[in-house]
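Thread: Newbie trying to understand structure tokens

Hi all, I'm a second-year student working on a class project, and my supervisor (Dr. K.) asked me to get a predicted structure for one chain before our next meeting. I've only ever worked with sequences, so writing a 3D structure as a token string is new to me. If someone could post the tokens and maybe explain what I'm looking at, I'd be very grateful. Here's the chain:
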Amino acid sequence: MTEPITIAKNIAKMLDSKKAVDIKLLEVGELTTIADYFLIATGNSSTQLKALCDYVEEETEKAGIRRTNKEGYGGASWILLGYEGVLVHLFLPETRDFYDLEHVWQDAPRIDLSDVIAD
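---
Reply by user tm_fold:
Sure, no problem. This is what the structure looks like when written as tokens:
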């Protein structure tokens, strides 16, 4: 089984390669039982969000990483993907601003992604 931090960083790299912006990784495992990490990223349109989602699903499947859940694809203003301890939140800019997960989870340590994304 692949460690959640490795899954999160690999998905961050995938998202960056497809031009997702403002990619953040929060370590929430000490604050909740729903996941170890929240990976948050923004796409500029519903079409881009769906493309990001599709790409992550294809690449994780190739790597043998099992998706545990998927929500919001039809509406595509916020797509949620679950992977073995990692929740991936893909937002449109206005939806990300509205939910402001970084503020809601402000006590969660931020993980540096400079080793995997260009940012």
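A couple of things are worth pointing out once you decode it. The CA atoms of residues 24 and 40 lie 5 Å apart. The first strand starts at residue 21 and ends at 27. Feel free to ask follow-ups in this thread.
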